[in-house]
From TrEMBL:
Domain Coenzyme F420 hydrogenase/dehydrogenase beta subunit C-terminal, chain residue ranges per copy: 139-304
Protein name: Coenzyme F420 hydrogenase/dehydrogenase, beta subunit C-terminal domain
Pfam families referenced in this protein's UniProt entry, alphabetically: FrhB_FdhB_C, FrhB_FdhB_N
Biological source species: Novosphingobium mangrovi
Domain Coenzyme F420 hydrogenase/dehydrogenase beta subunit N-terminal: 54-128
Length: 373
């Protein structure tokens, strides 16, 4: 994987591909095909399959504070380690040489999980060493973007080692992957030099927490989540993310997200408060891990109606119901789109008004044609 302007990760061919390797890539690549949702007791066209839909948080105050929302993902990973379900966790962490960037992290203790908690709103490739990982006899929990988990599920259809080596896969609701340029712009807006950073945190240490930058000479600056994401990072999201049919981790064993509280206008409020996680268990394995964490006292959560997520995550609902309109314009312009069978995209599109569909169809068409000039 290499970084291309303005800061996205892309694969680079370094040797001729054998036919079987190319077939495996075509099977797993989420740019070619997105894994279909599996069966579960409940299913929603926006929010995917579920055993339970809950809101809760980690009971350990440090875990709850360190996470981007209520620390649920961290608590679940710590439980997976402590219970012996896995021997390590594969996730991403800040790159010490480039703190706004990410690198692979293998955590084997609660302390390591907590130290590397928090959202990473930048390009990451957590599966870049998957062949080596599958070749090692180590049970590994995987945490990644919904498209990463999709790739893992698709790879499992042609590689039996995935089920053996990775017994649990967790994900989160994803707003899209911004470029490195977006993070650098935040740092400059803070009045600091991206080349002189010692540490950088996108958010967390509170809910939602603030973007925080520290330079090697001791300068410190912060920016609110509403400004860092809303004014900068959200504008740097790559094209593929704008047509994502499953940004909610629908094929993960458990998916977590911010269980935002709505403000007076019904829009999520980003005022600082104690963290609260949305937790969706999607498989038998996910349900078992969740129950184990609750029984161990690591996690507390209560069921909520699935329609409550509409209020917590309105941007995700909007994107899902507009996937069909956006991909229709892509096809009209001769732009490739991934296969997305079994993800209820047409059902979700039925909730979009004709005006909303039209604006997004023509808006996407203009975006494609303008980008080609």
């Amino acid at each position: 994987m290499e970084t291309v302007s303005p800061g996205y990760s892309r694969p680079r061919l370094v040797a001729p591909l054998q036919q079987d390797a190319e077939a495996r890539i075509a099977t797993a690549c989420p740019g070619a095909v997105v894994a279909p949702w599996s069966d579960a007791p409940a299913r929603d066209s926006y929010w995917g399959p579920s055993f339970q839909v809950l809101a809760g948080h980690a009971t350990d105050p440090d875990v709850r504070f360190s996470g981007s929302s209520g620390g649920a993902l961290s608590a679940l990973l710590i439980q997976a380690l402590s219970s012996g379900l896995v021997e390590r966790v594969l996730h991403v962490a800040p790159d010490p040489d480039y703190p706004t960037r990410s690198r692979l992290q293998y955590s084997t203790s609660a302390q390591e999980v907590i130290a590397n908690a928090g959202s990473r709103y930048t390009a990451s490739s957590p599966l870049q060493e998957i062949d080596r990982i599958l070749g090692e006899d180590v049970r590994t929990a995987f945490v990644g973007k919904p498209c990463d988990v999709s790739a893992l599920r698709q790879l499992a259809t042609v590689d039996a080692r995935v089920a053996e080596r990775i017994p649990i896969a967790l994900s989160f609701f994803c707003g899209g992957m911004p470029s490195h340029a977006g993070a650098d712009r935040i740092v400059r807006e803070m009045g600091l030099d991206p080349a002189k950073l010692a540490r950088f945190r996108y958010r967390g240490n509170g809910w939602p927490g603030v973007a925080r930058a520290e330079t090697v000479d001791g300068q410190v600056a912060e920016m609110s989540y509403a400004d860092s994401w809303g004014a900068h990072l959200s504008k740097e999201v790559q094209f593929r993310c704008k047509i994502c049919p499953d940004a909610v981790g629908g094929v993960a064993d458990i998916a977590c997200a911010d269980a935002w509280y709505g403000d007076a206008d019904g829009y999520p409020s980003f005022e600082e408060q104690e963290g609260r996680s949305l937790i969706v268990t999607r498989t038998d394995k996910g349900e078992a891990l969740f129950r184990s964490a609750v029984e161990a006292g690591a996690l507390t959560a209560s069921p909520i109606p699935v329609r409550d997520i509409d209020l917590m995550q309105p941007a995700q609902a909007r994107r899902k119901r507009l996937v069909v309109a956006r991909t229709m314009s892509c096809r009209l312009a001769g732009h490739a789109v991934p296969k997305m069978n079994g993800l209820d995209v047409k059902k979700a599109a039925g909730d979009a008004s004709l005006g909303e569909q039209s604006r997004n169809f023509f808006g996407m068409l203009r975006r494609i044609l303008y980008r080609r000039k």
